Amino acid sequence: MADKRNIIFIMNPISGTTRKSGVSKIIENTLDKEYYDFSIVETKYRGHASEISEAAKNNGVDIVVAVGGDGTVNEVARSIVNSNTALGIIPCGSGNGLARHLMIPMDLHKAVEIINKHMIHDLDYGIINDNPFFCTCGMGFDAFISMKFAESGKRGPVTYLENILREGLKYKPEVYEIEDENGKSSYRAFLVSCANASQYGNNAYIAPQASMSDGLLDVIIMEPFDMLDAPQISIDMFNKTLDRNSKIKTFRTRHIHIHREKPGYIHYDGDPVMADADVDISVVNKGIKMVINPYADKTKRQPNMVQNAFSDFFNDISNMRTDISRQGRHIHILNKILLKRLNNL
Predict the structure, then answer these.
(1) In this structure, what DSSP letter does residue 99 have?
(2) What DSSP assignment string belongs to 221-275?
(3) 244: buried, middle or exposed (CB in 10 Å: 19+, 13-18, 0-12)?
(4) Of the candidates 91, 280, 42, the residue with the CA atom closest to the CA atom of residue 199
(5) What pTM did the predictor assign?
(6) Burial grade of 55 (CB within 10 A; 0-12, 13-18, 19 or more)
(7) What pLDDT does 297 receive?
(8) Strand partners, 271
(9) How far is 77 from 93, CA to CA, in rounded Å?
(10) 9-23, 53-67, 167-181 — most confident range
(11) pLDDT of 251
């Protein structure tokens, strides 16, 4: 067919937790070859996905598909912003934050079927200090946990929750001066996070109401919390109720400038880097084309029954704070029980 679309699948053979040995065959057997001319390229080193994507964009390739985890997705996406080349995703990672927000199926056959539908939308992306991001960026405890997560050697929601419970009680809050189009405010906070999409990955929702098509970033400011708050904050991330937590302040904006007490880590889509005390964050409205799921139903982004039960459990604990505060050791027991139950999900 003269009007066939050109599509390149960029596969990271070592990313995430999914074995890649059968992925090529799934692509070959499932992709609509009457509609697409396709090729599959494996990355050989860090940054290779960016090089392949840049060349594909310059050659007018219609779609570049990231086959891998969040790192591969971000490498590809950053290379094709503000172009006519669209991003597709076959999620093979451990977090799959952007894929989950877009409700791309985790089943690989179904993910390829979504590409066959060829529904492409212009969506937003963010920039922090000249670094593009697509899900979230942040500083403070947010960036600190990203660093710990990267160092942990393990992936998945339990690792993320474990880091929050273990490290959160030791972390020192900072003072942040935040300026947007409505003025300047000062906050003593554990973290400041900006979300273009709703979650970090693993269904941990930092900004449950975030949209990639509204031209706005959701800003999340988490006030200092104690050991009584840590389990509830953790569960609220997985339960899509973080925005209702009393320790959280949120607002929406197109651009913010943040001044903090000293240089420190920031992260963009989970990649931690050192940055100056002053940080600029903005959104680029409809700056990237993405293959989306035409069957996505946002109402189905719901927590499961076990997550609801944990949330209710810790809300009950919150109502008994006075009694529990006299017996701090009980909190450590509760944390162990929580982690044990999550490990069994």
Answers:
(1) H
(2) EEPP--TTTHHHHHHHHHHT-GGGSTTEEEEEESEEEEEESS-EEEEETTEEEEE
(3) exposed
(4) 91
(5) 0.75
(6) middle
(7) 73
(8) 268
(9) 16
(10) 53-67
(11) 87
- The closest of 210, 209, 218 to 250, measured between CA atoms, is 218
Tokens of residue 154, six digits: 């393990």
Report residue 340 as tokens: 């044990």
The predicted structure's pLDDT at residue 75: 93
Work out the pLDDT band at 318, boundaries 50, 70, 90.
Answer: very low
Per-residue pLDDT band at 298 (split at 50, 70, 90)? low
Q: Which of 232, 217, 208 is nearest to 338 (CA)?
A: 232
Query: How many CB atoms neighbour CB 342 within 10 A?
Result: 19
Question: CB within 8 A of 244, min separation 6: which ones?
Answer: 236
- Sign (positive/negative) of CA torsion 261, 263, 267, 272? negative
For residue 158, the surrounding DSSP H or E stretch is helix 157-167
Predicted local confidence at residue 328, as pLDDT? 47
* CB-CB contact of 126 with 193 (8 Å): no
* Number of Cβ atoms within 10 Å of the Cβ of 147: 17
Angle between helices 305-318 and 230-239 (to 10 degrees): 150
> Is 265 in contact with 147 (CB distance < 8 Å)?
yes
What residue has token string 């339960």?
239
Start-to-end Cα distance in the chain: 48
DSSP for 14-79 reads: TSSSS--TTHHHHHHHHS-TTTEEEEEEE--STTHHHHHHHHHHHTT-SEEEEEESHHHHHHHHHH
- CA–CA gap between residue 207 and residue 136 (Å, rounded): 9
